[in-house]
Amino acid sequence: MSAPRTESTPRTDRMTLVAFMQASNVSVYSGSWRYPSSAPDYLNLRYYQRIARTLEDGCFDLMFFDDRLAMPSIYGNSVADAVTYGARPIKLDLTAVLGAAAAATEHLGLGATYSTTYYEPFHVARTFATLDHLSGGRAAWNVVTSVNDAEAQNFSVDAHSEHDRRYDRAEEFIDVVTKLWDSWEDDAITGDKATGVFADATKVHELHHHGEFFDVRGPLTVPRTPQGRPVIIQAGQSGRGRSFAAKWADLIFTGDPSRAVAVEHYNQQKELVAQAGRDIDTVRILPMVYVIVGETEQMAKDKEAIFLNELVHPMASLTLLSEVTNHDFAGHSLDDIVTDELIDSVSGIRGLVQGVKRHLGDQPLTLRTLANHRATLLQGPRFVGTGPQIAEQMGEWFQSRSCDGFVIAATHFPGAFEDFVRLVVPELQQRGLVQHEYSGSTLRENLGLERPDSVFAPVREVSAGA
Questions:
Q1: Which residues cross the membrane (predicted)?
Q2: Which fold is adopted by the domain 16-305+381-465?
Q3: What secondary structure does DSSP assign to 362-403, as a single string?
Q4: Cα–Cα distance between 266 and 270 in angstroms, integer?
Q5: How many CB atoms lie within 10 A of CB 190?
């Protein structure tokens, strides 16, 4: 490992481009299903393959899928509003979706969200190791601790565990997963048909892990993968979450409302990476942004007005606010003021309120406004205009040391990505800000990340020399 750098500069001269996906009836923008050109075949594997090929044509580094393990049901203790208004009631299993995308592409990175709270380390390690092999080294794991009681109740638990306890489990979880990924050394398999020796047993390691949360014998039933370990994505926004990301993540997904906030966050997060003993150039910080592009500026603004004002039902917004804060807002009006008393009584709302206030200032904040920031385009910065105008806006963010690239959120599928690839990517390429072609065969190679050594290889070498 090279010595940690403390100055905060972009790690390369080109942006990392990541597509934010949902295996769902909607994108992260909950009104997307209502847009006239949104494709209705989201239950067909060809839908995801078409999007993946579009992203690969645009030389995106990665597509990754958000996930929840429950339908939104906190509001009114019912799924009725989520179902009625299409507020993310559908979430397909991501294993099959990414398998389909892998078969349709050759270079695009493939990421999925898996929870450390409701899965087991062996299952997650095997899932992503298998994907990494079958895709030729393109897997990425988005590490989450899950968000609410509805998810808990689908896994035989009454209530979601408290924040720090979830991160305690996540720390042990990811430690076990990385050791399982390393449990086969790279040269363990000999495949010697003449002698009948398939692999060197001294290079396949049992973990015998006995921790607070897990007891895992190992080894993994999947040999070490093309990347060594799949790429790690993390999006923690709390103090504990940012520290966790600094220790483990290769890509950190953020939700900063403005460039000024993003610059501050970028510098703080890079400092945390350095404090964790890592080279800051090995970790990329990527804010989520919406891009609305048109052949003319007016066409782009007309589309923006539709997305802002016409497609998201207010009850869908409130349903999703209840989901993310793990609080039932059924007893409130959308026009209720968000008071200090409300903030104190809802454990999952403080960070969201702080982020929105940094965006809007000190004006009184209503539940309607707060909910809209979770369900509409208000939740993140927007780049709106023609291809050259958007390329200029993205370049300003990148060159001002506010990010190392972007997570592009779609206003609708598949058109938002098709427009971006057709109208914006050539402009970014002309400016030298994104790649023209893929430089490596694995996701780590395309991101410029080193392949990690197995934690067990030094142990074996020391033992052999003793």
A1: none
A2: TIM Barrel (3.20.20)
A3: SS--BHHHHHHHHHSGGGS-EEEE-HHHHHHHHHHHHHTTS-
A4: 6
A5: 12
Distance CA 287, CA 264 (A): 12
Residue with tokens 């939740």: 379
Domain residues of the chain, as ranges?
16-305+381-465, 313-375
> Do 412 and 323 meet the contact criterion of CB atoms below 8 Å apart?
no
pLDDT in tens, 60-74: 999 999 999 999 999
DSSP string, 311-380: S--HHHHHHHHHHHHT---TTS-TT-B--HHHHHH-TTTHHHHHHHHHHH-SS--BHHHHHHHHHSGGGS
Q: Are strands 109-115 and 62-66 parallel, antiparallel or unpaired?
A: parallel
Q: Quote the Cα angle for 291-296-300, to 5°.
A: 35
Q: Which pLDDT tens digit goes with each residue over 388-405?
A: 999 999 999 999 999 999
Which residues 6+ apart lie within 8 Å of 408 measured at CB? 17, 18, 19, 20, 288, 289, 290, 291, 417, 420
Length of the chain: 466
Distance CA 452, CA 454 (A): 7
Is the Cβ–Cβ distance between 166 and 145 less than 8 Å? yes
Tell me how far apart the alpha carbons of residues 136 and 445 are, in angstroms, rounded to a whole number: 12
* pTM exceeds 0.85, yes or no: yes
Backbone φ, ψ for residue 331 (5° rounding)? -85, 5
**Which residue carries 């050759």 as its tokens?**
106
Q: What is the DSSP string of 81-120?
A: HHHHHTSS-----HHHHHHHHHHH-SS-EEEEEEETTTS-
